[in-house]
Amino acid sequence: MTRDSGQLTSRQALAGLLLIAAVAAGIVTGLALLLERGGPEPPLEAPAEPAGPAPCPDLAGSDQQEPPLVPADDLIACPDAYDGQRVRYRGEVVRAVLRRGDTAWVQLNDDLYGLDLGPLPEHRTAVGGNSGLPVAIPASAVDPIQHVGDHRHHGDVLEVTGPFLRADPLDAGGP
After folding, report:
1. Whole-prediction pTM value?
2. N- or C-end of the chain: fewer Cβ atoms within 10 A?
3. CA-CA distances (angstroms) from residue 43 to 9, 40, 114, 116, 126?
4. Are strands 132-138 and 103-109 parallel, antiparallel or unpaired?
5. Residue 116: which H helix or E strand, with range?
6. Is residue 97 helix, strand or coil?
7. β-sheet bridge partners, residue 149
8. From first to last of its 175 residues, what are the pLDDT tens digits of the chain?
């Protein structure tokens, strides 16, 4: 019986299958050893959730010298309570800095990733949501920003003070 020079024999095919099986077994064994040696760090505990939603504050007629530091969650949950009130807001600059004439828009995230834990790949622990707000600031105020955060990099942290608008006409009605 004759065969073409490019044709595999049964013995060659069997040897190839055995080689593939041996390589796969080696990969599985190596991964198992890596996981036994330490594996990933234990996950962080999630912060305790409040028993129920906090009531919105009544800020009517408040005359505070120093505006309160208010998290995005409170501003989003109680937009009418804070509408027109001077507040302080602190967050990590993420996504992009958008200059529009004399104004610049920045997205500031004040969630656990932006202010405490850092980007997810650094700790590989999903804890809580991702929250923040777009903020309009003078274009000159963005000059010191050196790092804009994303899912792998931590951005600069800014603290801004100004009126919160429940429906900002400059942002098509967004907060």
Report:
1. 0.64
2. N
3. 52, 8, 18, 15, 8
4. antiparallel
5. none
6. strand
7. 94
8. 566 667 778 888 888 888 899 988 888 887 777 767 655 566 666 656 656 666 888 876 666 678 999 999 999 999 999 999 999 999 999 999 999 999 999 999 988 777 777 777 776 777 777 788 999 999 999 999 999 988 888 899 999 999 999 998 877 888 8
Neighbour-count burial of 35, counting CB atoms closer than 10 A to its CB (0-12 exposed, 13-18 middle, 19+ buried): exposed
With beta carbons less than 8 A apart as the criterion, state whether 43 and 117 touch.
Answer: no
Cα distance between residue 96 and residue 98, in whole Å: 6
Is 83 exposed, middle or buried, given 0-12, 13-18 or 19+ CB atoms closer than 10 A? Answer: middle
- Residue 173 token pair: 């009605």
Residues 6+ apart with CB under 8 A from 125: 41, 43, 44, 117
Distance, CA of 85 to CA of 66 (rounded, Å): 12
**Rounded to whole angstroms, how far apart are CA atoms 115 and 79?**
22
